[in-house]
Amino acid sequence: MTATVVLVHGAFADSSSWNGEIERLRAAGHRVIAAANPLRGVAEDAASVRSLLDSIEGPIVLVGHSYGGSVISAAAVGHPGVRALVYIAGFLPDEGESAGELAGKFPGGTLGETLEQVALSSGADLYVRQDLFHQQFAADVPAAQAVLMAAGQRPIAAAALDEASPAPAWKDLPVYSLIPTADKNIPPAAQRFMAERAEAEVVEVADASHAVLVSQPEVVAELILRAAR
């Protein structure tokens, strides 16, 4: 099928993280929209993405990276246009689960020790420390590019990582999951657990970081194209 592919970034990233995929998906004939994820909370972010989905005619393949997986799981519930969900190093929460809970379910994650908080009038925003961003988030991305990513990262509201998810769309749709085996944000064991539970078609990328969408866009795009067939 020819679909509109909607790409939803996660925390500490932005829509430009998908540039490599956008180029390849457009070359394959698909319309592509990289959504600006507000990163304020699962319900609020899902409502924003849902509004975008409602504006699209025809079939949709919905893709989420990292925390964006929690967002697409909520945004797609009952939506008639969404034909498949693709998770790239992403969360596939069940009802009542939070991203923070799932990330801590298995050993291997080191994100917490790299975070810094910026106080807001209500709550706080979280950033990955710029001096630790390369090794934590994007170890397989060239250092010069990782510096730019660190400087331009979008913060996430601290409360968003503890917000319980609603009933997920992945229970009713075809699911695809790409797991980078050197992910330090979401342990690969946690990603495997979630993918198996969702009966996802899984691709593992050896030695890839959490920023696999930046470091290996051809592999990520191929999985998205598989979901769009």
If you compute it from the alpha carbons, what radius of gyration comes out, rounded to the nearest whole angstrom? 16 Å
Strand arrangement, major sheet: 2-1-3-4-8-9
* Distance separating the two termini: 5 Å
The H-level CATH homologous superfamily, spelled out, is Alpha/Beta hydrolase fold, catalytic domain
Total domain units: 1
- Overall pLDDT metric: 98
Low-confidence stretches: none
Keywords:
Rossmann fold; 9 helices; 9 strands; 229 residues; alpha/beta; six-stranded parallel sheet
3D structure, described in words:
The protein is α/β, with parallel strands linked by helices and 229 residues long. It has a single domain, classed as Rossmann fold, CATH 3.40.50. Helices cover 34% and strands 20% of the residues. It is built from nine helices and nine strands. The protein has helices at 19-27, 42-54, 68-75, 99-103, 130-137, 143-152, 188-197, 212-215, 217-228, and strands at 4-8, 31-35, 60-65, 82-88, 115-119, 124-128, 156-157, 175-180, 201-205. Strands 2-1-3-4-8-9 form a six-stranded parallel sheet, sandwiched between helices. The chain has a three-stranded antiparallel sheet with strand order 5-6-7. α1 crosses α9 (217-228). The longest helix has 13 residues, at 42-54. The radius of gyration is 16 Å and the shape is globular. The mean pLDDT is 98.
